[in-house]
């Protein structure tokens, strides 16, 4: 029996004829179905393989529509391999990316830490051969799920999207909506430490292994900056400028209540080393201009594009944290480019300053690293700040990528998440919630 389906791929409606069922990468043919393609040609034949070319992807000149082209390319490739009978490993496993950070990364918008993480996840999925589809919202994600059904391994959402889907009568599966998305297939990206999914911590994906810091054991996915770092040449230290780059996109980060470093810290370091400081900071749109006076040793180049930022950073000898933003990917970028990070310490145990478990810093996930890679400096220690800048300049490092930040490590963790039996986990969780042994909303398997 042949079934006609109309698939919405971004901007176009494309008629497709689906005559096979695929489960776990194996072809399953009902006895009543002939082994032929849409046109009647034998599956796997050259004629059958050519049929799918009627949905050749459109090329949009505007970058903001690039995700639509990728959807078309991925879907065409999936149906072509089905026609030919030669799908690659994981190609018949679909992952739907519903969080807007994934599209932002392709559209060239503001590159936040969340976008860096999202794009790393997308690269890992592509490297592993999964069919990846971008959904504009949860309505589109639901429509994709209706089409690909049991081929869908995971839907990656924002934390609000997963809760909203569980509440919507036409989104998540329920007795009234048997064609909806199973809650156990929805995983929420959350940059911070708290669980952010209706099913709890295990269905919350984290960019860092926050369990190390004693937080809830979310599912650690992590990210890699290798692909971005490798776009730029490693500049020999002898050819670098005598400068340190300050990690700050916005001028408000220089306000006294935002940073432990007063202007005299920078000027003292400049006088002691002969170095200068560079920052690319601007005012936030639609916010009052902050009352900020930069040290004489700081040159602000203003708002810069990503390529220019990496060019300036790669020619620096140190990266200086101001206190914000917390847990930024930039210190990892710096280490990869052979640049140590100055990590400010805001809080500590006065009776034992060296007890790192009591420290609150800008980048807590780097507490285990020390000089010459990371210099942890107490907020009230101007001499320590100057010494850190001196030491960073005098003890250059080679490119350094943490093992957990390598793409191979990300792919390993992501593979385990995708192949885990989450339905069984969800069944046990549902039983516990129904018995009052666990808190959280009820859901339908």
Morphology call? globular
Sequence of secondary-structure elements: EEEEHHEHHEHEHEEEHEHEEHEHEEEHHH
How would you state the average pLDDT, rounded? 89
Summed up, the helix count is: 13
In whole angstroms, the N-to-C terminal distance is: 29 Å
Oligomer: single chain
Report the strand count.
17
Structural commentary:
The protein has helices spanning 46-51, 66-84, 100-107, 113-127, 138-148, 159-167, 226-229, 263-273, 306-314, 330-336, 382-394, 407-419, 422-434, and strands at residues 3-9, 12-18, 21-23, 26-28, 94-97, 131-134, 152-158, 186-189, 204-206, 219-220, 243-247, 276-279, 298-300, 318-321, 341-347, 360-361, 374-378. The strands form 4 sheets. Strands 11, 12, 13, 14, 15, 16 and 17 form a 7-stranded mixed β-sheet that branches. It has a 6-stranded parallel β-sheet with strand order 6-5-7-8-9-10, sandwiched between helices. Helix 3 packs across helix 4, helix 4 (113-127) packs across helix 12 (407-419) and helix 8 packs across helix 11 (382-394). Helices cover 31% and strands 17% of the residues.
């Amino acid at each position: 029996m042949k079934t006609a389906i109309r698939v919405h791929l971004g901007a176009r409606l494309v008629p497709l004829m689906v005559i096979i069922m695929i489960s776990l990468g194996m072809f399953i043919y009902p006895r009543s179905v002939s082994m032929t393609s849409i046109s009647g040609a034998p599956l796997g034949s050259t004629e059958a393989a050519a049929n799918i070319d009627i949905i050749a992807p459109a090329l949009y000149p505007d970058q903001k529509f690039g995700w639509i082209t990728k959807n078309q390319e991925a879907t065409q490739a999936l149906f072509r391999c089905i026609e030919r009978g030669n799908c690659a490993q994981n190609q018949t496993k679909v992952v739907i990316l519903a969080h807007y950070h994934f599209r932002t990364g392709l559209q060239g918008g503001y590159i936040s830490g969340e976008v860096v993480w999202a794009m790393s996840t997308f690269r890992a999925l592509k490297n592993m051969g999964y069919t990846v589809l971008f959904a504009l919202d949860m309505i589109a994600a639901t429509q994709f799920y209706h089409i690909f059904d049991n081929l869908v391994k995971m839907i990656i959402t924002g934390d609000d999207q997963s809760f909203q889907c569980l509440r919507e009568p036409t989104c998540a599966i329920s007795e009234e909506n048997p064609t909806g998305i199973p809650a156990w297939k929805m995983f929420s990206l959350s940059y911070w430490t708290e669980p952010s999914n209706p099913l709890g911590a295990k269905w919350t994906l984290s960019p860092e292994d926050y369990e190390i810091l004693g937080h809830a054991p979310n599912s650690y996915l992590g990210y890699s900056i290798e692909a971005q770092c490798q776009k730029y040449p490693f500049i020999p230290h002898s050819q670098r400028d005598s400068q340190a780059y300050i990690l700050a996109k916005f001028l408000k980060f220089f306000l006294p209540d935002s940073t432990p470093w007063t202007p005299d810290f920078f000027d003292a370091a400049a006088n002691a080393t002969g170095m200068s400081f560079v920052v690319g900071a601007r005012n936030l749109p639609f916010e009052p201009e902050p009352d900020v006076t930069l040290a004489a040793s700081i040159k602000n180049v203003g708002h810069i594009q990503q390529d220019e930022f990496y060019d300036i950073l790669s020619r620096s000898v140190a990266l200086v944290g101001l206190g914000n933003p917390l847990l930024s990917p930039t210190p990892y970028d710096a280490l990869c480019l052979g640049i140590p990070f100055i990590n400010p310490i805001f809080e500590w145990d006065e009776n034992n300053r060296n007890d790192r478990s009591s420290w609150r810093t800008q980048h807590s996930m780097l507490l285990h690293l020390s000089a010459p890679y990371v210099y942890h400096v107490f907020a009230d220690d101007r001499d320590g700040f100057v010494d850190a800048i001196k030491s960073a300049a005098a003890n250059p490092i080679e490119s350094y990528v943490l093992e957990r930040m390598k793409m191979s490590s990300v792919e390993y963790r992501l593979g385990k998440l995708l192949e885990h039996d989450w339905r069984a986990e969800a069944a046990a969780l549902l039983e516990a919630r129904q018995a009052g042994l666990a808190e959280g909303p009820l859901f339908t398997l």
